[in-house]
């Protein structure tokens, strides 16, 4: 990723992810999708919203930094408009701040906080926005929520400064993106084990969940130490996947399966289709940790 910061702005393409509740998403989409269409057209950014039957949704904004800042401005002002409209029906006198939640790789949060909290303090003081970095990672991911509150203008300035930090300090190692789960599906068993049975979810849900938001290239790099350290002996695990889901796992021209191989560090082989069989066999080879991560990414 090009990470030079010019005087007039950041001349790079970025992907920023936001975590929103259903009501917030409804506001962004608007009647018949008109609001999000307008935001896309006027900002020039790509705005994608994750699948619909989850209490929380991921909104992914991708584009040149100027386009991203325009999209953030439009979202912040829309939320302020919603607050003003809701206040006209309530006795409250003080206007609550606009709040946005970013989703940031945990490996970048240290740079965002700074030594002894110096960087986050500087961002708060220079923008007037409140910034909180969650102490814990989001479930089944290596990402944390960063909550920004303030006026729309303060939020826009804050996002600009956060983007500079993220470009100057790319993620270390692999990033497992946070994906909200449908409210109806229990995803964590007692003991914190991740559900990893593709047949337990409906075909529609699974095929959507298997298409994560675009990851920055830097998120797929492994630190040199992750490959050079002494590691447990390799083992092999096999699983079967229905034929109609295999395309989601392979991705266009193999991009998805290559991404899973890079992120997990495992070798993954997909058997050729067998006549008369409705399933394909996948063989995963690597350390137990590699295999576990590959399984999670395949079934997420």
UniProtKB/TrEMBL annotation:
Q: Where in the cell is it found?
A: Cytoplasm
CDD domains, alphabetically? KH-I_PCBP3_rpt2 (cd22519), KH-I_PCBP3_rpt3 (cd22522)
Say yes or no: keyword Ribonucleoprotein present. yes
Q: Which UniProt keywords apply?
A: Cytoplasm, DNA-binding, Repeat, Ribonucleoprotein, RNA-binding
Which Pfam families has this protein been placed in? Answer: KH_1
Domain K Homology: where?
12-80, 96-167, 233-300
GO molecular function ontology, one term from the record: DNA binding
Query: InterPro entries recorded for this chain?
Result: KH_dom, KH_dom_type_1, KH_dom_type_1_sf
Q: Which domain of life is it from?
A: Eukaryota
GO CC aspect terms: cytoplasm; ribonucleoprotein complex
Under which name does UniProt file this protein? K Homology domain-containing protein
Origin organism is Diceros bicornis minor (South-central black rhinoceros)
């Amino acid at each position: 990723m090009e990470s030079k910061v010019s005087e007039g702005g950041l001349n790079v393409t970025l992907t920023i992810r936001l975590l929103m509740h259903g009501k917030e998403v409804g506001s962004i989409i608007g009647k018949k999708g008109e609001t999000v269409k307008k935001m896309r057209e006027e900002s020039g950014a790509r705005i994608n919203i994750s699948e619909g039957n989850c209490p929380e949704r991921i909104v992914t904004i991708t584009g040149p930094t100027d386009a991203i800042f325009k999209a953030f401005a439009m979202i912040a002002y829309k939320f302020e408009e919603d607050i003003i409209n809701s206040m006209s029906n309530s006795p409250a006198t003080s206007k609550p701040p606009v709040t946005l939640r970013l989703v940031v790789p945990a490996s970048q949060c240290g740079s965002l906080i700074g030594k002894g909290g110096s960087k986050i303090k500087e961002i708060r003081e220079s923008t007037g926005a409140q910034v909180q970095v969650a102490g814990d990672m989001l479930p089944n991911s290596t990402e944390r929520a960063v909550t920004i509150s303030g006026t729309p203008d303060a939020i826009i300035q804050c996002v600009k400064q956060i983007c500079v930090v993220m470009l100057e300090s790319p993620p270390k190692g692999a990033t497992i993106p946070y994906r909200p789960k449908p409210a109806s599906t229990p995803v964590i068993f007692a003991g914190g084990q991740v559900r990893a049975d593709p047949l337990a979810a409906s075909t529609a849900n699974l095929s959507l969940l298997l298409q994560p938001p675009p990851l920055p290239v830097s998120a797929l790099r492994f630190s040199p130490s992750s490959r050079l350290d002494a590691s447990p002996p390799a083992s092999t695990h096999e699983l079967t996947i229905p034929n109609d889901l295999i395309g989601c796992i392979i991705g266009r021209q193999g991009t998805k399966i290559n991404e899973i191989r890079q992120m997990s560090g495992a070798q993954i082989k997909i058997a050729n289709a067998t006549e008369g069989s409705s399933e394909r066999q996948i063989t995963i080879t690597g350390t137990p940790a590699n295999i576990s991560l590959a399984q999670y990414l395949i079934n997420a």
